[in-house]
Amino acid sequence: MGRVTAPNQALPVPPADLPGTLGALRAAGHRYQTVKQELRHNLLARMRSGEDRFPGIVGYDDSVLPEVERALLAGHDMVLLGERGQGKTRLIRALVTLLDEWTPVLPGSVLNEHPLHPLTPASRALVAEAGDDLPIGWLHRSMRYGEKLATPDTSVGDLIGDVDPIRIAQGRTLGDPETIHFGLVPRTNRGIFAVNELPDLAERIQVALLNVLEERDIQVRGYQLRLPLDLFLVASANPEDYTNRGRIITPLKDRFGAEVRTHYPVDLELELALIRQEADLVAEVPEHVLEVLARFARAVRESPSVDPRSGVSARFAIAAAETVAAAALRRAGLLAGPAGSPAAGSASAADDATVRPESPVARVGDAVSVTSTLRGKVEFESGEEGREIEVLAHLLRAATAETFRARLAGLDLSGFTALVAEGAMIETGELVSSAELLRQVGTVPGLAKALDRLGLGDAPTPEQAAAGVEFVLEGLHLTRRLGKDVTDSGRTVYGGRS
To answer: Model-level pTM?
Structure first.
């Protein structure tokens, strides 16, 4: 991938008041800056103004970001080192916002040459000939970012460039820059270039980056092209003790000025903030359900049954939240149909026309589906083969119990235990409507306080109340105060003491 702008996305249009000629640019007092000077200048400006320096980056304020800022201020190319799903690519792309919004370029220049600092002989001749009347263009910062996912089939030509045989056939000589078809790196001149998963790049290809990092020039087919590239180069990698697919060669590591270690969210609140920011939820997911999923992801990450070297991506918790929301939407859709109407199986419903449609609100029971759909995101230790779902189900129950204790500790829930002690059986499940669940529970002492503790407010909807009731029932079961059975049809029945 060379640019971050989507193929069908309209390119930003430069403001009309920007200078249109080289003379007007000079008259406006514009000064040429390298990319690293530009990043340093804009970073300092944001520091002084208090503006958010890295929008959308969660959990790195006191650890990773200070190191990144020191690297930027020092003008050091850097490697972000960390396990999968730690936001390395997101952080790299956030660096683009530190570039000037618009920068002048020579129109048609493949290398994004600055009018005050042309690189190629042809561009220098053009500037000398046209002088102040030379028309100039403007490049948006979104077009100053290049990215390449390192794969074994990546070639030097992809990154650096190759001789174009057609131009040779047209009479140009070897070594002439006009004969070169430039690769992704020089085409991102005056911008930020990222190499994702750098160790996966073949060692002989990594060698091609040595000159780019240190001498800032490029070689193509043995011809030395003195084109001083202006780049900020950043790479991402997994720790070397994890990946056995390759490594970063020592001379290349030495040329990166900074190595920054990333990490997963250090506490529960940051994990929750990340889920809220990133998850695209198609239904309402109450806070207590999100907390269960955040604790679940952290428990999976810390489990001895999971390979710690591979890590458990932050995408695991995000996908879990999206899956739970989808389960709620599926329930609402099925219960709205004739066969699955909330009236079906409910003795208290008078007729279908009077039944309120089910709104999609996730319940803790919806999280059960996560253990099967997301097990492929987790690398287990070899001794756990065949037990993956069992391990995840145990960790999910533990996360639910922890959330129950954290949210409802000290609250009198005897009304629920008294209800089943009198012989009542409460049935819930994926296709049990909120109305049906609440009808079975009726008026329970302490329910309002429990819903308030769960953040569902003073006047929750029936679906929100049902989500709270199911969480209380499951928590009481996990703390051994209620029994629980699963029927052949997949419904869950709470009743008696476990």
So the answer is: 0.83
